Amino acid sequence: MKGPQASTKTLKTELVGTLDGTDRLRLASYNIRKSVGLDYRRDPGRILDIINRLDADVVALQEVDKRLGERPASIDRAFLEANSDFQIAELAQNTVSLGWHGNAVLVRKGLTIHEVDQLELPGLEPRGAVRVDIGDANKRVSVIGVHLGLLRPYRRAQLAKIRAHLERNEISDAVIMGDFNEWSATVGLEPLEDKFDIVSPGKSFHSARPLAGLDRFALSHRLELLDAGVDQSDRTKIASDHLPIWSDIRLDWS
Question: What's the pTM value of the predicted model, to 2 decimals?
Fold first, then answer.
């Protein structure tokens, strides 16, 4: 498995509306802990400000919805749409959530969402992944948002299920991103290792004192990593228990 420890500098990228042989995308992932910070304040405005400052084209969010009842979103849909340049991938199965199993995907306006899907994942805990396909009619990339389980055997089974889903649907260009919940840098992600490059941008948990790179990207082989990092600003160190991660990739169909 490959995954350089990238710097935390910010690399400005241009918004792309179509995907050609030289297109670049900025990807980001953020476990927002239902918008509750280390100061015990639920502050969706603070979270949305951090998301906007990441300047990403696609953002995978974890723990975006509350756990109880119908799982209402911790960030109001109308507030998000009015105060960002994102469209919300329609993954929720009700009118009050933003995502599914707490996983939501935001896509920059100007990029086309072609298809979405939900994947039930095995394990003792209820877990699911989400898939959002973006791009052109003939050139698409699938973004898989994940929040994997707490136990390694189930994480392996969950990744195997995601890989089987991609192979069954003949999806060759994909990025899996989110909270992998894997503390080890050497084991646990074996179901992906021959088809994906694993990118751990740096230590993202716990935000107050980062000790582990739980948040990762897994890029299929035609997706080229240009840069990656962890947002370690003062605000992110208190807004959630995770720090957001980002990566700049090039889509290579040459």
Answer: 0.90
